[in-house]
Amino acid sequence: MATAASQPTTIDAYIAGFPVEVQEILGKVRELIRKEAPEAEETIKYQIPTFVLNGNLVHFAAFKKHIGLYPTPSGIAAFERELTAYTNAKGSVQFPLDRPIPYSLIRRIVAFRVTEVRGKQQAKPARKASTKAPTATKKAPQSKKTASGIAAPRRTKQK
């Protein structure tokens, strides 16, 4: 595993920092994400592999005893019944290394996320150029005037 002094800057470098058996699993996870989201960009975010498609699509990572998949809370909620066999939280799931990795389930979760992201992209209305005149900027606070018409001194907060 990579140390804090040698943080990986690419997914290749991230995967290379693990034992061969784990590298194979990470490679398969990466490949199935690529197949489901060929237009997504690969990057490292939060020090783990990330696929970006109009925002974060999915993250994945390796740990001592599991592979973590982070498909956002909606990706977990959509497969809640199928994920009951695994430790999961609001936006993550852990696939233990001592059990078969459910590649088919991971593929379906990623496909769901791709569909979700594309749907959100299509649902966003195109931004229109504003036809309104620019609004005036906020005026600085005025000094209060006394009865004689002279501005009262401003009070400052004491420390």
What topology emerges from the helices and strands here?
Elements lengths: L10 H6 L3 H17 L4 E5 L2 E5 L3 E7 L3 E5 L1 H6 L9 E3 L2 E5 L6 H21 L36
Antiparallel strand pairs: 1-2, 2-3, 3-4, 4-6, 5-6
Helix pairs in contact: 2-4
Structural write-up:
The chain has 159 residues and is an alpha+beta fold. It has one domain: Alpha-Beta Complex (Aspartate Aminotransferase, domain 1). It has helices at 11-16, 20-36, 72-77, 103-123, and strands at 41-45, 48-52, 56-62, 66-70, 87-89, 92-96. A 6-stranded antiparallel β-sheet has the order 1-2-3-4-6-5. A hairpin with a 2-residue loop joins strand 5 (87-89) and strand 6. The chain is extended and about 85 Å long. The two termini are 51 Å apart. The model has no long low-confidence stretch (mean pLDDT 86).
What count of helical segments does DSSP give?
4
Characterize the biggest β-sheet.
6 strands, antiparallel
Q: What is the general shape?
A: extended
How many β strands by DSSP? 6
Summarize the structure.
With 159 residues, the protein is α+β, with helices and mostly antiparallel strands. It has four helices and six strands; from the N terminus they run H-H-E-E-E-E-H-E-E-H. The chain has one domain: Aspartate Aminotransferase, domain 1.
